[in-house]
Amino acid sequence: MIEYTYRQVKNLIERNPNMFDDVDTLNNKRAIVWLPSHMSVFNRFMEESLKARMAGYQRYSARGIWHYLRHLHQVSDQEHKYNLTNIVTPTLARIAMKLNPRLEGLFLLRCNGGRG
């Protein structure tokens, strides 16, 4: 499994400035601030996304993966060091599909918080 660094993600974002045009601006900013100190969670999101693709799924739910990770965190991490908030999911899905070509098209992207 590839372990991505925040530097890789930041470089990707800088090379693709329009990647988040259809995401709620405030939530996207929060997700970008959240990401550097939670790269282990992001890497696990990438791992589970690749598992879904390797299982043969052409489409899969980023939110479903996120809820699974939240469950794992809540039942196995006694300290509950971090909060796995839903607001980061649209941003992570877009980053994941741009970062790893094998994930391209895996997640259905909604515009404007699902309103468009």
**Strand portion, in percent?**
under 5%
- H-E order: HHHHH
Question: What is the radius of gyration computed over CA atoms, rounded to a whole number of angstroms?
Answer: 14 Å
Query: What's the average pLDDT?
Result: 90
Specify the helix fraction band: 40-55%
Quote the distance from N terminus to C terminus: 35 Å
Overall morphology = globular
Which ranges are low-confidence, i.e. pLDDT below 50, for 5 or more consecutive residues?
Answer: none
Label the structural class: mainly alpha
- The biggest beta sheet, please? none
Count of alpha/pi helices: 5
- Would you report the number of β strands? 0
Map the helices and strands.
Elements (H helix, E strand, L loop, with lengths): L5 H10 L9 H10 L4 H16 L7 H15 L12 H11 L17
Helix pairs in contact: 2-5, 3-4
What does this structure look like?
- This protein is an all-alpha fold.
- It is built from five helices and no strands.
- Helix 3 packs across helix 4.
- The longest helix has 16 residues, at 39-54.
- It is globular and about 40 Å long.
- The N and C termini lie far apart (35 Å).
- The mean pLDDT is 90.
Summarize the structure.
This protein has 116 residues and is mainly alpha-helical. Helices cover 53% and strands 0% of the residues.
What tags apply to this protein structure?
about 120 residues, mainly alpha, 5 helices
